[in-house]
Specification:
The protein is built from 5 helices and 16 strands. It is an alpha+beta fold and 359 residues long. It is elongated.
Length: 359
């Protein structure tokens, strides 16, 4: 490879030779610095004007320190005569720090701010996952207040209808102090079914003390007030009542208050864990599934006694085709008598209704 100094010297000698060969008279810079315009060219008098800087051009291969940029945030290297400055990595492998590099101080690892400025969440940071938020638990233990969280105010507990029934009147479990989380609500519903949770279909306008006592256009859900639901199971009733079905004793005679609890037939409640049961297995240990919608279970003074071992606190059930219940309870849309909880309706206000539990 011919470097710049060699090329420049060669070019200068070529020009000098050309001038001398032509016998031209021109201005030349002599050794003493004077300029003789008319002097004839004499190779011995020629002083080549080659600057010192050009004669000694160097790159980073000659002097690697030329690549030093005095920045601790880069690594400096010489590659084929060219300086390269590569940013260093300050990653400390911790998702809870913000990694940066200061030109004077080097790598910094400031704690990462996980605050989402929402008082309804708790914010934590783990080194592997980074920021995580979880909702604040607002629960004052009072069934007569709603447990809410306002993003500005935090937990709030506004009062709610503690009666539990859509028409505002309890028909059983009347002792609010004892039964704050469960209510027996009488009235009709004509949208069939209890086995599945359903949305209100008549704006919670059902109830024997309301304007629609027969439940026209209403589902069982419409018998419960907002913030309440038809009790889902034996365990749901047990969780909301300190003494099971005892609170139904103050209801009108011959009343049955249903839950969404179902079974595999023969008065057995599906309160177990076995998902393989059918609608006519008649054995304990079954899980409550779409295949175990036989019979209706609840509390009251109307109906037959269910299997005590599997049904826990629940003390009444419908028996085949609701034969143990009085009209207006009807389950005859299921001629096989294996899916009463899917087909039950109650087009009238007498003889009870449903049990409602707080959400």
């Amino acid at each position: 490879m011919v470097d710049r100094t060699t090329r420049r010297l060669a070019s200068t000698f070529a020009i000098a030779a050309l001038v001398i060969g032509c016998g031209a008279r021109t201005a030349l810079r002599l050794r003493d610095g004077a300029v003789d315009v008319d002097a004839g060219l004499d190779a011995s008098l020629i002083e080549l004007d080659v600057s010192t800087s050009d004669a000694h051009v160097i790159d980073c291969r000659d002097d690697p320190t030329r690549c030093e940029d005095h920045d601790v945030c880069t690594t400096d290297a010489c590659t084929d005569g060219t300086c390269a400055h590569v940013a260093i990595s300050c990653d400390d492998g911790d998702a809870c720090t913000d990694d940066a590099c200061d030109g004077a101080a080097g790598c910094t690892h400031a704690p990462h701010d996980c605050d989402d400025h929402d008082v309804c969440t708790t914010n934590v940071c783990t080194p592997t996952l980074g920021c995580e938020s979880a909702p604040v638990l607002c629960d004052d233990g009072d069934p007569c207040t709603a447990n809410l969280c306002d993003p500005t105010l935090g937990c709030t507990f506004p009062p709610i209808d503690c009666h539990g029934c859509a028409d505002g009147v309890r028909d059983g479990f009347r002792d609010l102090a004892r039964y704050g989380g469960i209510a027996a609500c009488a009235g009709g519903f004509q949208v069939m079914g209890l086995s599945h949770v359903s949305a209100p279909t008549c704006a919670r306008g059902a109830g024997n003390d309301g304007t629609n006592p027969d439940g026209v256009g209403c589902s069982a859900t419409d018998l419960c007030a907002p913030g309440w639901h038809v009790c889902l199971s034996e365990s749901d009733v047990a969780a909301h009542s300190p003494d099971g079905c005892m609170g139904a004793s103050d209801a009108a005679p011959s009343s049955f208050f249903a839950t969404r609890q179902t079974g595999p037939g023969c008065g057995v409640c599906a309160t177990g864990t076995d998902p393989g049961c059918g609608p006519n297995d008649c054995r304990a240990g079954c899980a409550q599934t779409d295949q175990t919608t036989n019979d209706i279970f609840g509390c009251g003074s109307l109906g037959d006694r269910p299997d005590a071992a599997s049904c826990g606190v629940l003390d009444r059930f419908s028996n085949n085709l609701c034969s143990a219940l009085a009209a207006p309870w009807r389950c005859d849309a299921d001629p096989a008598g294996l899916r009463e909880s899917d087909f039950v309706v109650k087009p009238g206000s007498d003889h009870g209704g449903v049990l409602c539990c707080t959400d």
